Amino acid sequence: MKVSTVWFALLGMLIPTIARAGIPLQRGLVRRAHGKKKVSRRVARVGRRKHKARLPKVRKRTRWLRKISLKPQARWSVTSVRLPPRFDAKDPVYSLAQMYKLAKVRNLDLKVLRKQLQLAQLASTKAWSILKPQLSLQASYTRNDNEVKFGNSVLTPRDQLAVQFQAQWAFFNLSAIPILQTAALSVTQTKHSIRQARREIMYGVARAYYSVLLADGMVDIARASWQNSKAHVNLAKARFRGGVVPRMAVTRARLDRVQAERQWIQARNGLRNARLALALLLNRPNLKFRAKRPQAAALPSGNVVSWRRSALLRRAEVKVAKTAVDVANKQLTAKWLEFLPTVAAQGNLQGINATGFGGRNYTWSVMLVAQLKLYNGGTRIVQVKEARNKLFQARLEFAKSSQKVGNEVAQAAISIQNSKASLRVAQQQRKLAQENYAIAQRRFQTGAAAPVEVSDALTTLRNGQLAELQEALNYDMSLLELQRAMGTFQP
User: With left for phi above 0 and alpha for psi between -120 and 50, is residue 72 left, alpha or beta?
Assistant: First the structure.
């Protein structure tokens, strides 16, 4: 082991002892290190004569004591280190409300849902064709081998042309009534399903936006951690030049700085990925923006029981399940009405280029047709049983949906309580971690703390800041989750 290394180690152990003993010479040096312009020459002279034998090297290292004095210097403060610039500093700021507007216009899933609603409305229009008249027109041309005549009347011309017009209207068909009602209920059910899907899409946009907020906050925390690690490296270098700490302290500080830089790079990449996830919902290849934390939603009045009751009246899932029960009931009624007869009016008008025996080129007829299906192999009985089973299944699905909605409301209420408590604990943790880091920095400046204590304090501070940020955003999301569970989330 080199003599200089042993000397610096001994000097590092002696300086805290001298500081605690309160030697006049050290006091005078500390005063000069703190920026005191005037120091008593008499005190300094007496201190030098009295302790010259005990501290032969202190005068030569006075300038290094300025850097390790008990009072924190401005040159080693956190603000003295230059932060790395943000890559998105010039990007525009988009609020959550603006993201909702973009999603309503550009989201592909919402466009598909609009087409589904149009298809449901067309299906309802098509169902009305059961009670509307059916019109048909038929024309035919026939080339015969010869012409058949009876007297002056042509029975079969060589070139025969015939035109037939037919009209049919089933004006008495009771089974068509529940079919029309089912078509209208299907449109209503589709609207509720679209409202449910639209709510989930918008909720997905909100979750993606809050993910961007979390990633953005992680970038700021990583930048601050990198900043603190750089300040610690500068302090460790100064103490090493003064012979107070070994080179290992500088190496450990540099290692913390490299780790903080890696965390900053990872946070920056995470922010880019979060933006891409939100851009996918907005049907954009890339979206450059800065996120702004929205105002937290207000907690609704009442308790869990009133919230559950409100959710059963508002939630689109419950309405879809209830409409499915009505549809199944109408379908069962339609199968029973198929046992009743149907009455239809039918008219025919036919024209031909041959007069025939009647001496006319056209004929017409009107019929009234009544039909009663007596037996078709037992198919109608089977269809009735199937419709009844579907009705029972729809009722069970409705009960299941109601229970699920009530459970989601209770879970959202518990999540709000847990998020609120976790946020309070995280805030206390961050404050204690910040205080612990400040104490570790001061102890390291005075030589009372090892470099590993500063590294642990820096890691604890970063974890505390991340926990506070995450719990704060989780609390905001839990309020949105309660609105979603109650059915009041309608951006």
Answer: beta
Contact between 463 and 433 under an 8 Å Cβ cutoff? The reply is yes
All structural domains of the chain: 3-71 (no CATH), 93-120+200-338+375-486 (1.20.1600.10)
Contact (Cβ atoms closer than 8 angstroms) between residue 70 and residue 30: yes
The rounded distance, in Å, linking the Cα atoms of 291 and 289 is 6
- CA 357 to CA 47: how far, in whole Å? 151
pLDDT of residue 179: 86
413: left (phi over 0), alpha (psi -120 to 50) or beta: alpha
Instruction: Please list, in sequence order, all residues whose beta carbon lies within 8 angstroms of the beta carbon of residue 194, skipping any fewer than 6 positions away.
Output: 113, 114, 116, 117
Over the stretch 134-192, which tens digit does the pLDDT of each residue have?
Answer: 899 999 988 888 877 777 777 778 888 889 999 988 888 888 888 888 888 989 999 99
- How far is it, in rounded angstroms, from Cα 199 to Cα 489? 7
- Compute the mean pLDDT over every residue in the chain, rounded to the nearest whole number: 81
Q: Give the span between the Cα atoms of 82 and 78, in whole angstroms.
A: 9
Q: What is the average per-residue pLDDT within 273-292?
A: 90
Lowest mean pLDDT among 54-68, 83-97, 391-405: 54-68
Amino acid at 259: Q
Cα→Cα distances 133→94, 173, 192, 363, 365, Å: 57, 12, 33, 21, 17
Backbone angles phi, psi at 371, to 5 degrees: -130, 135
Percentage of residues of the chain with pLDDT beyond 70: 82
Eight-class DSSP state of 300? P
| Cross-sheet strand order for the sheet of 362-371 | 134-143, 159-172, 342-352, 362-371
Confidence of residue 200 (pLDDT cuts 50, 70, 90): very high
Cβ neighbours, 10 Å, residue 219 = 22
Quote the Cα angle for 405-408-412, to 5°.
145
| Over residues 111-134, mean pLDDT | 86
Q: Give the pairing of strands 93-94 and 290-291.
A: parallel
96 alpha carbon, distance to own chain's centre: 11
Tokens of 178: 């529940």
pLDDT confidence of residue 83: 67
